[in-house]
Amino acid sequence: MNFDLPGTSEAAAKISTTCLRDFSAPTSSKGEILRFIVSRDKWPVPYLIRYALLLIGLEDLGRSEKIAFYIPLSYRGRHGAVALQKFGMRLYLDHDPHDEADRAKAEKAHHEIVRKLESAVRIVESWILRPFSEEQVSSGNVTIGNQYGTLRRSYEYFREGARRAFAGDESKSEAVSFGGLSLVSDPPEGFYNLVAALNAYLSLLEHTLVLALPFTDFSPETESLPDFISQRWGDKYGRVFDSQDRDARRHRDQLVRLVETWRNTYSHGGFDKHQATIHFHVPGVGAVPAAFSDIRDSPHFQFVPAREADFEEAMKTLDALDSWLQTGPLSDAMLWILEGLDVRYDKDFREELRLARDAGQLEDMIQHHSYLWEQNANMDW
C-alpha cells in the first residue's frame, strides 16, 4: 500500500473526521457474529474499501484460506470486520443473541457502515487516485482485462445464426406493406446475422490488437496506449503489423473489401462509398444510380442483400485471417491471449516477456501466470 501519493494525508484526515469518524480499532465482542453479504453494486472495487480502512489506521490481518484480506474494526463500540472472501465482500458485526433490539441495531449499523465506506471510497478516488491514475495510464503501468473469449463467443453466435439461416433454418419473415404493394419480403435472417457477425469480428480483432501490443516494440515513453486504443481498427492493424509484410497487407485488403461491402454499408445508415443508394435524374432516362454500372457490386443491387455464397466467402476471409494470426507475427501473442490471461503494459512485464521469448520459455511463463491467476481467483494461498 503506497501512502506517499499526493493528497493522501489530506484524504486520510477528511475520511477520519467525516464518514469514518465512528470507526476505530476493534474492541471486545458481545457474542454471536452476524454475517452480511455486501453486493458488488455497493462496493464494486473491494481493494478501495481496504485502502480507506488502512488510511485511518486499521490493520489488515492478511490472507488466509479463501480470504484475500480481513480487517477487524469497531463501529460505535460494536465489534466487527470487513473481509474479501472467495465469493465476495463480507461485513461481520457482533450482537447479543438474547437481545432482539441489539440484533436490530446491528442490522442498522450494517447499512450505515456500507454507506459510510462508499463515501470514504469517493474521497479516496477524487483526492488521491484520479490524478494518480492519469499518470499511471500515460506511463503504461496498467493492465487490460482479456475479453477475447467473450467477444469470440459473440462473433460465433451471430456466425452460427447466419449459417443456420442460409441453410434454410431461418424464421420466416412476413411481407409487410407500408401503404402499397409489397413485392419482396424482408431480407432473410442470414443477412442480419452476417452483418452482426462482421461487427462482432471487428470488435474481436480490435481487442486482439490491443492485447498484442506488448508483444511488439511498444513503449509508453514514445507512444500513448489510450491513443492507440481510440484508433480505428485499420490504424491499429497498421501499427501492429509491418507495412512491408505481404501477408499482412493481403489479409488487410481482403478484410477491407469485406467490411466495405457489408459492415460499413449497414453501419452507416445503409449507405456505401460507391453511392449506390443515390440516384441522379437524367432527362429521357430516369433515375440513374450515382455508382453507375458498378452498382452490381453493391448489396443494394440484389433483391436479397446476402446469399449463402456471400456468407461462405465472408467466412473464408475471416477464417484465413484467424489462422494467420495464430501462425504469423502474432503467434506468441495469440498463445497468451487464447490462454485467457490479462495483459500488462508496464516495463517489468515487457522485459519479462522479452526474456522469456528470447529464451524460448514463453509457454513456461504462460503456465506460471496461469497458476498465479488461478491462485488469486480461488484464493488458495
Account of the 3D structure:
With 381 residues, the chain is of the alpha+beta class. It contains twelve helices and nine strands. The strands form three sheets. It has a five-stranded antiparallel β-sheet, with helices on one face. A hairpin with a 2-residue loop joins strand 3 and strand 4. Helix 1 packs antiparallel against helix 3, helix 4 packs antiparallel against helix 5 and helix 5 packs across helix 8. It is elongated, with a radius of gyration of 29 Å.
What brief labels describe this structure?
single chain, 381 residues, alpha+beta, 9 strands, elongated, five-stranded antiparallel β-sheet, 12 helices, two-stranded antiparallel sheet
What share of residues are in beta strands? 5-15%
Secondary structure category: alpha+beta
Low-confidence parts, pLDDT < 50 over ≥5 residues?
172-186
> Strands of the largest sheet, in order across it?
1-3-4-5-2
Question: Which range best describes the helical content: under 10%, 10-25%, 25-40%, 40-55%, 55-70% or over 70%?
Answer: 40-55%
| E-strand count | 9
> Termini, distance in Å?
19 Å
Task: Calculate the mean pLDDT score and round it.
Answer: 87
How many helices does DSSP assign? Answer: 12
Shape: elongated
Indicate the radius of gyration in whole angstroms: 29 Å
Return the string of H and E elements: HEEHEEEHEHHHHHEEHHEHH
Major sheet summary line: 5 strands, antiparallel
Question: What is the fold's blueprint, element by element?
Answer:
Layout: H1 8-17, E1 23-24, E2 32-38, H2 46-55, E3 67-75, E4 78-85, E5 88-95, H3 100-139, E6 143-144, H4 148-169, H5 189-212, H6 225-230, H7 233-240, H8 246-267, E7 279-282, E8 286-289, H9 308-327, H10 331-338, E9 343-344, H11 347-358, H12 362-378
Antiparallel strand pairs: 1-3, 2-5, 3-4, 4-5, 6-9, 7-8
Helix pairs in contact: 1-3, 2-3, 4-5, 5-7, 5-8, 8-9, 9-10
